[in-house]
Amino acid sequence: MSVENVDVLIIGAGPSGSVAASYLHNNGFKVKVVEKNIFPRFVIGESLLPRCMDHFAEVGLLDCLKKRNYEVKQGARFLRGDEVCNFDFSKKHTKGWDWTWQVPRADFDKTLTDELLSKGVDIEFEEEVVAVNFNDDGSSETTIKNKLGENRTVRAKYIIDSSGYGRVLPRLLDLEKASELLDQSSIFTHVKDVNRPEGWEGTRITFDVIDLRTWLWVIPFSNGITSIGYVGSSEFLNSFKGSSSDKLREMLKLSNYYKERFEDVEFQFKPIEISDYSKSVKQLYGNGYVLTGNSAEFLDPVFSSGVTFATESALLAAKLITKSLQDETVDWELEYSDHMKNGVGVFETYVKEWYTGNLQKLFFHTPENPEIKKQICSVLAGYVWDETNPFVKNHHRLVKAVAYVIDMEKEKSE
Hints:
3 domains; eight-stranded mixed beta sheet; 19 strands; 36% helix
């Protein structure tokens, strides 16, 4: 069996793996990326947040993405019956990017890996990690199987697991644990958006709230394709019968706003169903490895946080590994785990309070409070580490408190 030696082995070539690989390669380390699939390939997570633009810019991956002319995302719209809540990323509490993109991930991810390959990063596709052994010093021997079924070994000083939904190390090292979030499921596809309106209305990402736990996403791309998908309780989504196409077509009738636009449109592929999608792990790092992105934690798609957490964690992991390889002391608990858990904790509160209805009260309350809206907008833009923002610093209690005040005001007016 052949043996290869590298500084860092990265499992997975999505945005998380690409950001980590780019940073480490730029700093002169020998990096190997192994990816189970062949690109381009479809994956969910098509709506980005402004925060991740910082990450792509820092590692030199922004220019190649700009050339693709993806649909610009300047905010997000939430609908609930006749109620409308618009967030504009230029009107937020935290300084930072005012826009990002809505991206077909097959093209987006391949653009990233093509750029890395052009810079000389070692990426191998259709390569599956089947076993890993860690030594006392944190170094490892990883067994990798290629598409012909042949095995080889890669020795590395560190492993970054950016495998996303594949969750390679959590499975191999028994790190998985149940999420504390509700059991939610989703069903989604792409459509050729032949009835797309002109202008702003046709390009705006929208979340159409059907009831407390059920909502439809509509994410238009610049190529004329639109991503559509329902999220709801597992019990509710399982109550629809027939094929996945039959189920989604029936669900689309629930949206008064969108049912005509998407009536009888052609699905680009058979709708995909994901049950109980929220995931968690016992720990984010260990001796010789670190988990990034969805391989560590996946919350909920309602605020499009997936790619941003992936790139935030990947860049931070790459920086800390760089320090360690340069014989600097790294406190992984403080510098990595605590940092990521703080950000995840903010979004976790928002996800939980969305499904209790408290956050929806804040979104759709009239008249709007401009200052509160700016602070919430910063969270929705991904700036969840800015503790000058009261809705970050006091996230555990502030959403509940403001919702309570709204309820009291409503009772007084009735």
